[in-house]
Amino acid sequence: MISITYNYTIIPVDITEIEHNAQSIITWMGYADFDLGILLTDNKTIQDYNKTFRHKDEPTDILSFPFHPGLQGGEMIMLKNEDDQNLGDLIISLEFIQDVCVEENKTTNEHIRTLLCHGICHLLGYDHYTEETDRVMKAKEEWLAAKFCEE
User: Fold this and answer.
1) In whole angstroms, what is the distance from residue 108 CA to residue 110 CA?
2) Which residues contact 79 (CB under 8 A, 6 or more apart)?
3) What pLDDT, in 10s, does the model give residues 58-100?
4) 23, 56 Cβ separation under 8 angstroms
5) Do 107 and 101 meet the contact criterion of CB atoms below 8 Å apart?
6) Higher-pLDDT residue of 53, 81
7) Based on the structure, what is the number of domains in the chain?
8) Res 151 pLDDT > 80
9) 13-51 as b/e, with b when 16 or more CB fall inside 10 Å?
């Protein structure tokens, strides 16, 4: 189940579309029945999380909090019990991405779709800390983007 909390309503978004996009991504990745939490918020809230968990005192576009933190990109989650059917949580700052949307001539929901691909990849163990893992993660994100074009 996709659970979306929308606490920064100054920037309008289509929650139904975001939920559909997130569900599509986790289905394509092989986790259709898994839970995913998404918080759509402002710069102050995401900055607080970024400072607390990453020791970076600045806002960012997205943060990922995996339920299975030891997972490697491409490795499947092995369920030990029903409670393990959770991918984790994403926090997205609508305020932060507002300027990016204008610069890239994208709607907020289009940019959120890109961030969902990125964030869910992180939840599933993909990262961009080395040149090799960055290449693998970008390929997975491009594959997901192409899947949306097929819809």
Assistant:
1) 5
2) 85
3) 999 999 999 999 899 889 998 988 889 999 999 999 999 998 8
4) no
5) yes
6) 53
7) 1
8) no
9) beeeebbebbbbbbeebebeebbbbbbbbbbebbbebbe
Tokens in use for 147? Answer: 């899947």
Q: Amino acid letter at 4?
A: I
State which amino acid sits at residue 3: S
Helix (H, G, I), strand (E, B) or coil at 90: strand
Q: Give the separation between CA 117 and CA 125, rounded to whole angstroms.
A: 13
Q: Strand pairing of 86-93 and 35-41?
A: parallel
CATH number at residue 61: 3.40.390.30
Range of the domain at 73: 2-150
Token couple for 33: 């029945």
Q: What is the pLDDT of residues 2-22, one digit of tens each?
A: 999 998 889 899 999 999 999
Write the burial class of residue 118 (CB in 10 Å: 0-12 exposed, 13-18 middle, 19+ buried).
Answer: buried
Neighbouring residues of 10: CB distance < 8 A, sequence distance ≥ 6: 42, 94, 95
Distance CA 88, CA 66 (A): 4
Distance CA 12, CA 90 (A): 18
Site of tokens 């189940």 = 1
